[in-house]
Structures are given as C-alpha cells and as structure tokens.
Amino acid sequence: QVQLVESGGGLVQAGGSTRLSCAASGRTWSMYAMGWFRQAPGKEREFVSAIRWSGDLTYYADSVKGRFTISRDNAKSTVYLEMNSLKPEDTAVYYCAADSSPSSHYSLTRFPREYDFWGQGIQVTVSS
Q1: CB-hemisphere CA count at 13 Å for 58?
Q2: pLDDT tens across 19-71, in order?
Q3: With left for phi above 0 and alpha for psi between -120 and 50, is residue 53 left, alpha or beta?
Q4: How far apart are the C-alpha atoms of 7 and 105, rounded to whole Å?
C-alpha cells in the first residue's frame, strides 16, 4: 500500500503563488507515476498534472500549462505542485494520486480511474 498526505495550500490572492506537497510512503512508491487532480464544488474531478517515476517526463492540463509545475524528490518521498499566476477558477480541493500501473513507467495518463492511491485532499482557495 501507498499512503499519501497533502500539505500546503490555503488562501491565496489571485495572481499569487503557492506550493502543494504530497508526502508518500510505501516500499515501491518511488517507481510509481504521480499525479495531481482537483475538484471544485459541483464539478467532476479534474486532471491537473502528472510526473513519471524518474521525474524526467511531465504532463499538464491545458488549463494550467505555463502556470503550474510538478516535480518530485524521491529521496524526500515528496511530490510538489508549484502554482503560479493563480486564478479564482483554480479554487478547488487538490488531490495527490499514485499510478502503480507498469505502463506508468513509460507514459502518463490524465484519467482518475488509472490511479490507485489517493491522498485526503487539501483546499486551495484563490480570492479575486
């Protein structure tokens, strides 16, 4: 099993920046692709970004390209999401997720169904 715990976020003004962290545990965690998703009230869970186990391949939703950056530090068992130029529409609960599929060693997916382990979620609120 993989356990994921998000931290960071909170209340941020539009145009500002913040960083989310996802602390992971598990024997094989470092071999899993990791993703960030978000869910706003009344909306479906939405893909934000993903990163390959080695950190050398990333994937972003069009809505966050150029503003968000995903990274990971396997030595620290942590995945990060740097969020810049925040907009009110970025307001959501953000979830960290792990993809244990062998295919994730080579490619990334935006579909929540493909992710096996999830954090509890953390609120990010962007004020106008």
Answers
A1: 19
A2: 999 999 987 788 899 999 999 999 999 999 999 999 999 999 999 999 999 99
A3: alpha
A4: 26
